[in-house]
Amino acid sequence: MSNQEATASAIDHLRTILPQDGTRDALIHSVIPNLLQSIADVAQALRNSHQVSAAGTANTFGDDQLNVDVIAENIIRATIAQCPSIVTASSEEDPIEQAVEHHATSSSSEQYTLAFDPLDGSSIISANWTVGAIFSLWDGPSALNQDPATRQIVSILGVFGPRTTAIVALRVSGSPVPKTCLELALGPAVSNPTSATVTTPTKWHLTAPTLTLAPRSKYFSPANLRMAADDPAYMTLLTSFITRRYTLRYAGGLVPDIVHMLVQGQGVYVSPVLAGGDGSRGQASKPKLRRLYELCPLALVVECAGGAAVDPVDGTAVLAREVKDCGERGGLLCGGREEVVEVVKTLLS
Amino acid sequence: MSNQEATASAIDHLRTILPQDGTRDALIHSVIPNLLQSIADVAQALRNSHQVSAAGTANTFGDDQLNVDVIAENIIRATIAQCPSIVTASSEEDPIEQAVEHHATSSSSEQYTLAFDPLDGSSIISANWTVGAIFSLWDGPSALNQDPATRQIVSILGVFGPRTTAIVALRVSGSPVPKTCLELALGPAVSNPTSATVTTPTKWHLTAPTLTLAPRSKYFSPANLRMAADDPAYMTLLTSFITRRYTLRYAGGLVPDIVHMLVQGQGVYVSPVLAGGDGSRGQASKPKLRRLYELCPLALVVECAGGAAVDPVDGTAVLAREVKDCGERGGLLCGGREEVVEVVKTLLS
């Protein structure tokens, strides 16, 4: 791919993937561009929040770390208010579906529900490790009691690292491309010579039009590793990865860990749940990941890249089960399709 | 610590740590500020290098990834040329000590040798994970055949993540503070209203004046994990971490992995070498880390934070042995002092 092609307008590219019949115009021209802009704005806010670096150290800036979550939430909420087609929203910080009050009205009949995690990776942001934001769009006025496989149509991951990148996964029925997963990157900042303030960089470049996951892998990401102390099957799995000389990558942030897999084109991520994982066998056995804000969006991303995302408890697809409540949690096993099948066998043996 | 104190000039703070007798004026007023500025400049260059994101994927931008290394090297080389007191330099990209040609002359009698790794973490930069730069300053015209414990006086780690931060470790004899390890963070960008170009953010804030490592830890970072397939002692160590419910964090980049430890105030990092580790037992057994560009600078950082950094082969301090050649490699075991002693016992048992 030439440099010129790579920097073609990302939105122009999305237009070619989505239905051309006008039924998704608000999605293409308002919702997705605004969410991408909010990622750019959160990235800039994080760069300027230098005090978060001290969180967790002796000079406790614990509140500052919390402030970063709040800043990200506020930026995204302000963005949502600009999108009349997002009629309902909830976030990991405020996990209740609420109707959105808009600054503008729209003649569009499109109605979407947004579920988002404004800043995923709070345990690693103090060390200045890459963190992320997670967005998922559902058709209609609620994400609850819906079929995730057909009603959750878009996931966007914002990746805040040395660069600002975004993964966009789309599975919109009636599209010329049934499903796709692509990567965008924010280009150079552009300043406005007539303004004293630096303008936010807004140019997204299409850097990878098709991210795919190979069926098998040589990378593994074992989450909640402490659980292996109580779960012989998980310990067996780990030993098997090591003896088969897999390469370990585990940031401990869901977004960077899944994005590593997508960019490498291979990988397997395991966040298991102890049988009867209700926490009765200690903190490590509690499921950690939120179904609405983490599992469903990430599962769509992985499936759109040709991989599989399943519940490690029984091997069923994450997207096979409706979300009944914003607070639901679960485990996650995802990655290349063959790899996932094998790991399920090991974990359930 | 108040916000006002936290944003006190970082250089003003360094001035209070270093000798006040004029013998380190060039170090304080020229060398360290210029190296910090080069970190800011590399950070900006990385943010604008959006194409690196595609490296490692099907649409191969492999050359672009290499370009990022070259861009960082060039920025730092240009900085060095501004510092008459840096008389010799070598880098991981060009591992030969060479006299520096300067743009300016100096009346200072101070002479330093700089060893640097312009961009550490090439395997994870395509995934937009945090990467780093490593700088170490040695007294005199060479880093070779010198006592690292006394002649290597400053290490600086540039951390390129959601923010831009830097770890500065100093152990300069005759200083009011014998050794210290601190964290800086780059503050908000400042634009020049009379210019059409965005000016580089240059304001470093002191965010953590004293980073310390607790003697014991609950975090572990196991590098070169595949080696455990051949080394029962390493496998025993891993099993021990898991059963004692340590938390895994392993980015696979030396800078982010050590910085995580420093910011959390605890941790243990293990990059072992197989007994007789000459590569004859396969790729995994070869020592990976460069002594001059990685091990010595990181060991100074860890020691200045009160931790220990030893050779996993025999448990001797990394800084106890001179660097004879720019290409030397080795393993690394570092972290809290008690933790390191215990791990040595396990690895050598």
From TrEMBL, chains A, B:
- GO molecular function terms listed in the Swiss-Prot or TrEMBL record: fructose 1,6-bisphosphate 1-phosphatase activity; metal ion binding
Q: Which UniProt keywords apply?
A: Carbohydrate metabolism, Hydrolase, Magnesium, Metal-binding
Give the UniProt record's GO annotations in the biological process aspect. Answer: fructose 1,6-bisphosphate metabolic process; fructose 6-phosphate metabolic process; fructose metabolic process; gluconeogenesis; sucrose biosynthetic process
Q: Which GO terms describe its cellular component?
A: cytoplasm
Ranges of residues in domain Fructose-1-6-bisphosphatase class I N-terminal: 42-171
Domain Fructose-1-6-bisphosphatase class 1 C-terminal intervals: 215-345
Its pathway? Carbohydrate biosynthesis
The entry's family comment says: Belongs to the FBPase class 1 family.
Q: What is this protein called?
A: Sedoheptulose-1,7-bisphosphatase
Family annotation (PANTHER family): FRUCTOSE-1,6-BISPHOSPHATASE-RELATED, SEDOHEPTULOSE-1,7-BISPHOSPHATASE, CHLOROPLASTIC
Q: Which Gene3D superfamilies match?
A: 3.40.190.80, Fructose-1,6-Bisphosphatase, subunit A, domain 1
What SUPFAM superfamilies does the database record attribute to this sequence?
Carbohydrate phosphatase (SSF56655)
